[in-house]
């Protein structure tokens, strides 16, 4: 099926740029099916919407997402605005018969996410959640290695996501850029922001999580609120760590914080199985570390696979073997897979059901930390 896919984007911040770039690049490097057309971008401030439209080539602007959703010339509503906007926009877009792409976390909590998953299912519209790390070629290769049974039975899963940008007491909360520190907007702190990424990848690589035992901390308990100018309590989790037991019997540890001095976006994961192990690090995202115990004894050791060859996931469409790609390409791959799925009549994962599955785990983590007990993850 050829033709165009008319995009209506909500939000022109960090993710608005990543998505716009992906919509433009995907059909050039992965031609298949419909070609995205940047019809309209929506932001509350007209001047910033117009500046964004000029930079990225959007044909028009809106300042109210409701007007965007009502437009008959839009096929897909792409939600790249803060977490408190996701549910209302997604549910309205689905009711209007639009396809919906939504940033993570899907909802501020699982109840919101469940309403969103129900809305797209009822409307029968294509949907996806931007858990982009699945489509870093090295992470996709990890999934292939696991699917081929090369690790054997999985014993351990270990993930962490460390940042350091909120350590200063002078940092306010709320408003543009700092909405992540405001629980009413974000839903939670690092659990919904950073651990959500770790959890989505883990569910994809290692299956469902059965139960969790968590602890969290808010290190700076009061900050000036940008919108009011007054000092207000901080209610997000600044740091969150949990133990987990997967349905397949493996044990896991997860940790996220914005107080790890020196770390900017250190997302790492490690999996230990019966025959082998893998390890991946976002700071070196084009490499996958792989150990295979079945290698000949004298030569056995960790392989550092430079995931740039033509037979690695996605890499046959980029440059030549040996030349690496980066962060933005994970979004390009997600759009490419979505377009191919539309063409072939297959749903893309992660979809809203997957987004809900992650929110059910983050809800369990927050409940466990609050109540200081093991919590079973609702299926
Ligand atoms: N997939 C990822 O790796 C990743 C990375 C960063 C952020 N995110 C997610 O993306 C979303 C946006 O984050 P960001 O970092 O781009 O934020 P941002 O603060 O950089 O940008 C948010 C944009 O939304 C706009 N906005 C806010 N409310 C709006 C409304 N009611 N209508 C229209 N526009 C509105 C703002 O003006 C701004 O342009 C969040 O849900 C976040 O969790 C995902």
Structural class: alpha/beta
CATH class of the largest domain: Alpha Beta
Profile the largest sheet. Answer: 9 strands, mixed
* Each distinct ligand: nicotinamide-adenine-dinucleotide
Approximate strand percentage: 15-25%
Q: From N to C, what is the helix and strand string?
A: EHEHEHEHEHEHEHHEEEEEEEEEHHE
Q: What is the mean predicted local confidence, pLDDT?
A: 97
Number of strands: 17
Strand order of the largest sheet: 16-15-14-13-7-12-11-8-17
Approximate shape: globular
Q: Runs with pLDDT <50, length 5+?
A: none
Oligomer: single chain
Whole-number total of structural domains: 2
CATH fold naming of the largest domain: Dihydrodipicolinate Reductase, domain 2
Radius of gyration: 21 Å
Quick rundown:
The protein is an alpha/beta fold and 379 residues long. 33% of the residues lie in helices and 25% in strands. The longest helix is centred in the last third of the chain and has 20 residues, at 352-371.
Protein architecture, described:
With 379 residues, this protein is an alpha/beta fold. The chain has two domains: 4-132, 3-Layer(aba) Sandwich (Rossmann fold); 135-376, Dihydrodipicolinate Reductase, domain 2, CATH 3.30.360. 33% of the residues lie in helices and 25% in strands. The protein contains ten helices and 17 strands. The strands form three sheets. Strands 16-15-14-13-7-12-11-8-17 form a nine-stranded mixed beta sheet. Strands 3-2-1-4-5-6 form a six-stranded parallel beta sheet, sandwiched between helices. Strands 9-10 form a two-stranded antiparallel ribbon. A hairpin with a 6-residue loop joins strand 9 and strand 10 (231-233). Helix 4 (86-95) runs parallel beside helix 5 (110-123), helix 5 (110-123) packs antiparallel against helix 10 (352-371) and helix 6 (137-147) crosses helix 8. It starts with a strand and ends with a strand. The structure holds nicotinamide-adenine-dinucleotide. Nicotinamide-adenine-dinucleotide is lined by residues 10-16, 42-44, 65, 80-83, 85, 103-104, 130, 132, 177, 193.
